């Protein structure tokens, strides 16, 4: 029986500042067991290593900072033979980066994402309670939808582009879709959210996804939306700008200093008028951002408009402002993948391998966040130096 992440968190407490540890998972399968159920593209005669343990140990290598296939195979080969045996691989292993690359390139990307993000969802799902609060009192969670291009995956005219939905609070990915070649993110929005329970969820997205069909889908699935409005919806944008913002009261103000700048955000809310041309619109929002760069002294002021299906009083003004800011958690996730894992410089290009590698990075970051790490670079340093802790995290050792 695998150990619970709560036990692992206690063992790692001297290295980690705990945020919100996941629920007790003693009854859940290990990640290796989950991944072992994936369709295996290899010929039966050519399978030297079980699929689940091999992919799980690849994740642990990424958790320790591996940024390439060569680094992954080198780390797996360097693990203690006894630990490899516990994980389900032979004590003696000869794994080539090209062999691993061919395997990842042939995996079913949809099946892999369903498995790993289902695993992350199980980690973050609270056990059911005996009594449920009234719907208007149920806490809401933010889910940010945004895309990312894997720049190093370019082959000819095609580059892998992924659309993902990420939890604001934990920075864990709930679902991911690959955008079809010569298309854009809009058609991928519906299949991305189709498998998710949107009850008590607020979908946040940038202006590209401010589409009538997207709003109707989110509401039909039991969720709420909070969309940024720009020039791609010219009539709506013009109506929002024409609202009486000068007479509206200031609903929220934040003043933050960090990253070499000071940013003041001012938010005003206006109850949407019946003629506002967008389905289920309940409130319009104006955000003014005043940003001053300390080094240059330059100040810029940007005005952004948003629209939401949340009715007045469903959340406080502070919570609504937090949902708007929380959308950028997905941008922070993309930044970590590019800076810590050097994703944009990765030259993994064949088949589904770029998508699988991106999911391994998402999963490594999500697990580190859930166990309490606030600095992913520090987490990779720790698990590189203490691989046994990483093996404990997935239940390979007690």
Compile the SSE list and pairings.
Blueprint: H1 5-11, H2 31-35, H3 51-63, H4 69-78, H5 81-87, H6 97-106, H7 109-124, E1 141-149, E2 161-167, E3 173-178, H8 189-194, E4 201-205, H9 212-220, E5 224-229, H10 234-242, E6 252-258, E7 261-271, E8 283-293, E9 299-308, H11 317-326, H12 329-339, H13 353-371, H14 376-385, H15 387-393
Parallel strand pairs: 1-4, 4-5
Antiparallel strand pairs: 1-2, 2-3, 5-9, 6-7, 7-8, 8-9
Helix pairs in contact: 3-4, 3-13, 3-14, 4-6, 6-13, 7-13, 14-15
List the defining traits of the structure above.
398 residues, elongated, 15 helices, 18% strand, single chain, alpha+beta, 9 strands
Describe the structure.
With 398 residues, this protein is of the alpha+beta class. Helices cover 37% and strands 18% of the residues. The chain is built from 15 helices and nine strands. Strands 3-2-1-4-5-9-8-7-6 form a nine-stranded mixed beta sheet, sandwiched between helices.
Work out the helix count: 15
Query: What proportion of the residues form beta strands (DSSP E)?
Result: 15-25%
Report, as a whole number of angstroms, the end-to-end distance: 9 Å
Quick one: overall form?
A: elongated
Strand pairing plus helix content: what structural class? alpha+beta
Topology, number of strands: 9
Helicity level, as a percent range?
Answer: 25-40%
What is the H-and-E element order?
A: HHHHHHHEEEHEHEHEEEEHHHHH
Summarize the main sheet. Answer: 9 strands, mixed
Average pLDDT, all residues: 87
Q: How are strands sequenced across the largest beta sheet? A: 3-2-1-4-5-9-8-7-6
Question: Unreliable stretches, pLDDT < 50, 5 or more residues?
Answer: 17-26
Radius of gyration: 23 Å
């Amino acid at each position: 029986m695998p150990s619970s992440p709560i036990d692992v968190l206690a063992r790692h407490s001297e290295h980690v500042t705990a945020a919100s540890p996941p629920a007790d998972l003693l009854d859940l399968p290990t990640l290796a067991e989950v991944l072992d159920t994936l369709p295996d593209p290899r010929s039966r005669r050519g399978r030297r290593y079980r699929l689940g343990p091999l992919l799980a140990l690849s994740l642990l290598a990424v958790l320790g900072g591996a940024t390439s296939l060569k680094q992954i195979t080198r780390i797996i080969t360097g693990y203690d033979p006894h630990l490899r045996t516990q994980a389900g691989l032979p004590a003696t292993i000869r794994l080539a980066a090209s062999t691993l690359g061919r395997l990842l390139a042939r995996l079913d990307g949809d099946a892999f994402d369903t498995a790993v993000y289902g695993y992350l969802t199980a980690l973050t799902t609270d056990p059911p309670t005996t009594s449920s609060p009234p719907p208007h009192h149920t806490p809401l969670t933010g889910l940010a939808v945004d895309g990312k291009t894997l720049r190093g995956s370019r082959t000819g005219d095609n580059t892998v582009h992924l659309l993902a939905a990420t939890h604001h609070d934990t920075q864990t990915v709930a679902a991911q879709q690959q955008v079809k070649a010569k298309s854009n993110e809009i058609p991928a929005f519906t299949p991305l959210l189709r498998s998710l329970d949107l009850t008590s969820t607020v979908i946040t997205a940038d202006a590209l996804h401010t589409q009538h069909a997207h709003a109707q889908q989110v509401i039909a699935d039991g969720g709420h939306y909070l969309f940024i409005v720009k020039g791609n919806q010219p009539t709506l944008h013009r109506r929002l700008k024409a609202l009486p913002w000068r007479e509206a009261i200031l609903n929220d103000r934040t003043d933050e200093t960090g990253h070499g700048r000071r940013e003041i955000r001012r938010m005003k809310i206006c109850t949407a008028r019946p003629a506002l041309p967008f389905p289920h619109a309940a409130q319009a929002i104006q955000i003014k951002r005043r940003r001053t760069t300390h080094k240059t002294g330059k100040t810029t002021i940007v005005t952004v408009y948003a629209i939401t299906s949340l009715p007045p009083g469903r959340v406080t003004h502070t919570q609504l402002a937090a949902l708007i800011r929380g959308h950028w958690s997905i941008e922070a996730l993309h930044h970590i993948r590019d800076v810590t894992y050097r994703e944009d410089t990765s030259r993994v290009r064949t088949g589904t391998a770029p998508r699988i590698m991106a999911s391994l990075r998402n999963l490594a970051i999500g697990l580190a966040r859930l166990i309490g790490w606030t600095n992913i670079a520090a987490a990779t340093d720790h698990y590189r130096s203490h691989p046994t802790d990483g093996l404990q995290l997935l239940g390979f050792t007690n």
